[in-house]
From TrEMBL:
SUPFAM superfamilies: alpha/beta-Hydrolases. Keywords: Hydrolase, Signal. Residues 61-265 form the Serine aminopeptidase S33 domain. It comes from Dyadobacter soli. It comes from the Bacteria. One of its GO terms (molecular function) is hydrolase activity. This is Lysophospholipase, alpha-beta hydrolase superfamily. PANTHER family: PHOSPHOLIPASE-RELATED (PTHR11614). Pfam families: Hydrolase_4 (PF12146). InterPro entries: AB_hydrolase_fold, Hydrolase_4, MAG_DAG_Lipase. Residues 1-20 form the signal peptide.
């Protein structure tokens, strides 16, 4: 009885959050983008927020896209938003708790112990989108956001508030060498059970960030405070949460809505800068992504993108034009 009462209380708290009116202010991007901070129930670190970013179409539309960013990331992709708006989608993004606009000073960046912690942020964003008159919704997730949305879509089977799912280089497998995966990873996961706050450096190559940012070799301008070249060390709890999510996928997950999985045609593992970074995925093993994607049960399509970078929509112009063409041709069939 006590357990049931607690669940009822938690549901009421979430319902209050999801149905609360949101107030938009000018976003840091400017140019017509607005943002709203949503206060969520506190967690093991204290106060929690997520942030909804919005820009609507000039003419009234009843379809929308909700974009969910990846690890060491936040929403900054103005060009992507404008492409969706041009195609008649009201554009929404969410900076998940402890990322980007939603990070609070008492929190560790990116901290999570179970990927389901993000479901409340997604539920809230979708509730706002529906309340604002959008009848059809495309969910879009990049990298870690792609993994989270895949699990979320499976968990919400039968109660979906979206119509299709787009996955841009989803983090379906940790890019760990097989030897380390057999020896070190089990030890890290065991330690994470009792010491989830212990730090661990993922060793992500900073050259990927340099391939993107305008101050280095790239063409994109964004905050290096919110998306640094070198990601902050994660907690062991993060590794355990991501591994457990990937294991769920490996066992097979049912998704009732159409799914499009896009990934680069090749992975790259360079130690020094070269233009090769513009031609492949410098973060994930794309063979593992393609293999794991086949564990989705439902109507899905997997496509490799020649010359695509890890974040496909940040690839060089000809490649990202092809990516957008693929996305919108698919969306016309699935989000009507």
């Amino acid at each position: 009885m006590k357990h049931r009462s607690l669940l009822t209380l938690l549901f009421m708290l979430f319902a209050g959050v999801a149905n609360a009116q949101v107030t938009y202010f000018a976003d840091l991007i400017g140019k017509g983008f607005k943002q709203a901070t949503i206060v969520q129930p506190s967690d093991y670190e204290g106060s929690v927020t997520c942030t909804i970013i919005r820009k609507t179409t000039p003419e009234k539309s009843t379809k929308a896209v909700l974009y969910v960013h990846g690890f060491n990331d936040y929403f900054f992709q103005e060009e992507m938003a404008e492409r969706y708006i041009k195609e008649g989608f009201n554009f929404y993004a969410v900076d998940l708790r402890k990322y980007g606009r939603s990070w609070l000073s008492h929190q560790k960046f990116n901290n999570v112990r179970d990927l389901s912690e993000y479901y409340a942020d997604i539920d809230t964003a979708l509730a706002v989108i529906k309340r604002e008159g959008n009848e059809k919704v495309l969910l879009s997730g990049h990298s870690l956001g792609g993994l989270v949305l895949s699990l979320y879509a499976s968990e919400r089977a039968g109660k979906e508030q979206f119509d299709a799912l787009l996955l841009n280089s989803p983090m379906f497998a940790l890019n760990i060498k097989s030897g380390l995966k057999k020896t070190a990873l089990p030890l890290l996961l065991k330690r994470a059970e009792k010491h989830p706050e212990s730090n661990f450096d993922l060793g992500i190559n900073p050259l990927y960030g340099e391939s993107l940012h305008i101050t280095a070799h790239g063409e994109w301008s964004y905050s290096l405070g919110l998306k640094p070249f070198i990601a902050p060390p994660v907690n062991l709890g993060w590794i355990r949460a991501v591994f457990n999510g990937q294991e769920k996928l490996a066992q097979g997950i049912q998704i009732n809505k159409p799914v499009l999985v896009l990934h680069s045609a090749k992975s790259i593992d360079e130690k020094k800068w070269s233009d090769i970074f513009f031609t492949g995925d410098a973060v994930l093993n794309v063979a593992n992504v393609a293999r794991q994607a086949q564990n989705i049960v439902g109507q899905y399509s997997i496509q490799a993108v020649q010359g695509g970078m890890h974040d496909l929509i940040l690839s060089k112009q000809p490649v990202r034009d092809e990516v957008y063409s693929t996305i919108f041709n698919w969306a016309k069939r699935t989000v009507k």
